[in-house]
Amino acid sequence: MSQWSQVQQLEIKFLEQVDQFYDDNFPMEIRHLLAQWIESQDWEAAANNEAMAMILLQNLIIQVDEQLDRVSQEKNLLLIHNLKRVRKLLQGKYHGNPMHIAVIISNCLREERRILAAASMPVQGPLEKSLQSSVVSERQRNVEHKVSAIKNSAQMTDQDVKYLEDLQEEFDFRYKTIQSLEQNDKNSALIKQEMLALQAMLNTLDYKRKEVLSKIGRVIHEIDMLMSNMLTEELLDWKRRQQIACIGGPLHGGLDQLQNCFTLLAESLFQVRRQLEKLDELLTRLTYDGDPIPVQRPQLLEKVNFLLYNLFRNSFVVERQPCMPTHPQRPMVLKTLIQFTVKLRLLIKLPELNYQIRVKATIDKNVSTVSNRRFVLCGTHVKAMNMDESANGSLSVEFRHLQPKEMKTSAGSKGNEGPHMVTEELHSISFETQVCLYGLTINLETSSLPVVMISNVSQLPNAWASIIWYNLSTNDPQNLSFFNNPPAATLSQLLEVLSWQFSSYVGRGLNSEQLNMLAEKLVGQQVSYNDYQLSWAKFCKEHLPGKSFTFWVWLEAILDLIKKHILPLWIDGYVMGFVSKEKERILLKDKTPGTFLLRFSESNLGGITFTWVDQLENGDVTFHSVEPYNKGRLSALPFADILRDYKVIMADNVPENPLKYLYPDIPKDKAFGKHYSCQPNEVSKPSDGGGKGYVPSVFIPVSKILNDSTEPHSPSDLLPMSPSVYAVLREHLSPTAIETAVS
Q: Which residues neighbour 197 within 8 Å (Cβ) at sequence distance 6 or greater?
């Protein structure tokens, strides 16, 4: 079943989440019509490879054209209209930046997998609950409402300033008219009446000036309050959601909404600034005793400038954290001399700033806060922000060709390369620029989340563990000394993040039973997940009891095994995986003989085994577990084929496949049949002949069980024997002879 088919079977509350991330950037019609084709492409790799992204974009347009031809024959007018619109969108919006559509589709597929994983979980995890709080959603709506109200107030004040200007011009005209009269004329009763009218008009001018200043003051105060409270909280929440998304959590959104709020506030502040400039202009033409403009205007202008400075400084954000194209699901781990990408955005989107802001990237700018290792950035490290490269027209810049290079120490050698010293050192990529607009000059700085620098790919697992622990444990964006004394993590939150590693990396998260097993492996006993605090050392530095590796190295090896060798079986949910030997036997003991389950080895790194239940002649139940298969063996023979062809030779018995039902009671071929590389009846018979006169052969995994043994021997004896050849041997040889030959 395709991923999209699974999505369509979700409950309505999950379907509403899916609906949120499909928009005009990637319409749901295309996801639906091209579901299988889309899922068969490597969008993650294309998101960091421009040539590959361009090919996929061109192929996507070809797929749309084929669908367009089909619906044209069916005369489906609505679908024809929508597909033409989508085709125009793909050609116009992404032709200059094909990697953007790859990023969008990759994110959508990843978020679908996360939602599917969440739907299979009995309860929502504590981290995800906090990120999707109804209080947060209500605050978002309040911010948008207040920003809109502020914009309206600033526009209304514009009308008040215009009325004040018109009133002053009328006063000025009438006053100058009186001044031009002869002295005798000024003493007339009519002129005296006019002077009284002018005094009344001046009183009105004074009242309107005070009123306009008061309204401007209220707008400034509302902006100040909004920036100090809700908008700051929204920005911090977005940054926290970005942290969590980087370690596999829910896809973070809301940056476009924040950009809209920041832009409207900036426009309102510049509008207020122009209003204050207009008041200054009116002041030069007319002033009087008690005039409020010279008293209040300087203070208001100073406050506006202060708010603009702060608004711009907060608007400069890292939209996409540093990431190597070769490891798109391991952001913030950078390898020396390997290119990485990073994207920044200015949330204040003003046309006047297009191509006017040049951003400079540096590394470890504050060198006193980091380790003795020193790095420089090679490649293009200065670029201009623009609105043309992003599909949504945001004011952004993406660095695509940066490379970190380690500098030699003063002694002429490189820094400490110990396995944990390197992966616990945090570094920072900094960005700086300057905005010059309407007489203001504002210096802006921002930094990426802490990154880990590695010099060898073998350091990647521990480096990624550091990234997980940091972003799980703190929302401080720049605590580079974090691992000098790393805090403990709540076990319940850590388990949730571990499930995300599986849902984001291999397409299916962990259920509560699987998480229970991981918890017991970490803690060694039954504990309350909500209260238990797990140390960093227990997670990543201390070896598991009786083992030569840590918990994290063990888990990372399993992720690698799934990704490279058993991914379809894992996605289908047929690999129980995380179950202890004790629990395994409890599950199997009352099942039909031949019932088996698949679990990951606890003693071998990156190993998977299967255990089946059998019944002896006296009625006793016995269990057999095959020696774990590792990536070396699975590279030679697909795991589904191993399950199909596996044979056991008991003493004085013919070889047979003991695997009948996948736990709890699924017929083996029903579960794995679609994953077999070929059906048994497709294997050539000896009489068919093989290439160049040879008889075709296949590898068949065989184990031997002695009467006094409950465990089969190693499955490494992979016999180059076809099923048909084996059938012929059974006709001509006794079971004892076959056993002797195998031995």
A: 174
Report residue 331 as tokens.
């952001």
374-378/340-346 β-pairing? unpaired
Q: Which of 263, 327, 471, 112 is closest to 104 using CA atoms?
A: 112
- Report the distance separating Cα 178 and Cα 185, nearest Å: 9
Overall residue count recorded for the chain in this entry: 743
User: What whole-number distance in Å separates Cα of residue 165 and Cα of residue 174?
Assistant: 14
Instruction: Name 68's Cβ contacts closer than 8 Å, sequence gap at least 6.
Output: 80, 83, 84, 87
Digit-coded pLDDT (tens) for 471-509? 999 988 889 989 999 999 999 899 999 998 998 888 788
CA 522, distance to chain mean position in Å, is 26
Q: Hey, what CATH class is 495-675 in?
A: alpha beta
Provide CATH code, domain 137-313.
Answer: 1.20.1050.20
Buried b (16+ CB within 10 A) or exposed e, 113-131: bbbbbbbebeeebebbeeb
Q: Work out the angle at residue 105's Cα, subtended by the Cα atoms of residues 101 and 109, and round it to the nearest 5 degrees.
A: 170
pLDDT in tens, 415-451: 444 445 677 899 999 999 999 998 899 999 999 999 9
Q: How confident is the model at residue 740 (pLDDT cuts 50, 70, 90)?
A: low
* Bond from prior residue into 628 cis (ω within 30 degrees of 0): no
3-state secondary structure string across 651-663: CCCCCECCCCEEC
CA 182 remoteness from chain centre: 81
Asked whether 554 and 498 are in contact (CB, 8 A), the reply is no
Phi, psi of 649 (to 5 degrees): -110, 110
Q: Where are the domains of the chain?
A: 3-120, 137-313, 324-407+421-454, 495-675
CATH of domain 324-407+421-454: 2.60.40.630
Closest CA to 111 of 37, 10, 257, 235: 10
CA–CA dist 387, 593 (Å, integer): 66
Question: Which residue from 680, 692, 691 is spatially nearest to 722, judged by alpha carbons?
Answer: 680
- Residue among 313, 220, 318 at smallest CA distance from 262: 313
| Cis, peptide link before residue 461, omega less than 30° from 0 | no
**Structure tokens belonging to residue 555:** 């888990």
Contact partners, residue 621, CB within 8 Å, separation at least 6: 589, 613, 614, 615
